[in-house]
Amino acid sequence: MGRTYRRNLGLMLLTGCLALIFMMGLSSAQENKSHLFRILERGVLRVGTSGDYKPFSFVVPKADVEKGREAKRDVDSRLSNKTGDQVLIGYDIDAAKKLAEDLGVKLEFVPFEWRNLIAGLVADKYDIAMSGITIRLERAKAVAFSEPYILIGSSPLVRKEHEKRFRSWQDVDRPGVRLVVTLGTSNDQIVSKRFKRADIKRITAPASTVAELLADRADATITDNIAAVMQVQDHPEDLHAVNPRHPFEKDFFGYPVQQGDQTWLN
């Protein structure tokens, strides 16, 4: 009887171990399932976006979209604060809509702050980020990027009254110049690398850098040349883009996703 008991106990333990191994394998398989299949099962594509970066992801009054035109938006409006009277638009917003349409799923936009862009992606708060995002080595260490889709460059955006004072980025990097930049962006990294003498102030949204300029709390900011041109179009009497056709540093934009998911990346 003792041997029978021990044999039965051994079988029970073996069965339990096999069941545990099976469940662990099942759990691991579910965890390792590509985002593509999760999206299709969920029926929703979650896209992280900032809602503050014209012309790629920004908010405008709904009435202006319905009229078929874009009006100047409040430079402090944020995706997280948008109401039923505001609409999210932009090049990457259109791309997100097309991606969801091709997948045959619904689309959900998830707001992020630039400083938390990569952390949100790693934490699986969204499946992909689409908001005019520069492909940089520091980011590529934590996430994977799609193929580049646009070449972008960095240019100073200054107050119109300083048009003759600032003719290059070197003119901006001088003692006493109040330089404002968005925390966590690629331009923040560029400023850290290149600008050694200007008085640097870091804030949390590209729209706010423009607000700082318009309120005369800053003399200049560093932004992407396309964004600089768009802001001058919105504020021709107040702002000036310095050499936007000849940016002092160039990068590519891409769409980041979690690492190790080649099926979704493809």
From TrEMBL:
Q: Which SMART domains match?
A: PBPb
Presence of keyword Signal:
yes
Q: Its domain of life?
A: Bacteria
Q: Which residues form the Solute-binding protein family 3/N-terminal domain?
A: 44-266
Q: Does the keyword Flavoprotein apply?
A: no
* Pfam families recorded: SBP_bac_3
What residues form the membrane-spanning segments? none
Q: Which UniProt keywords apply?
A: Signal
State what protein this is by name.
Answer: Solute-binding protein family 3/N-terminal domain-containing protein
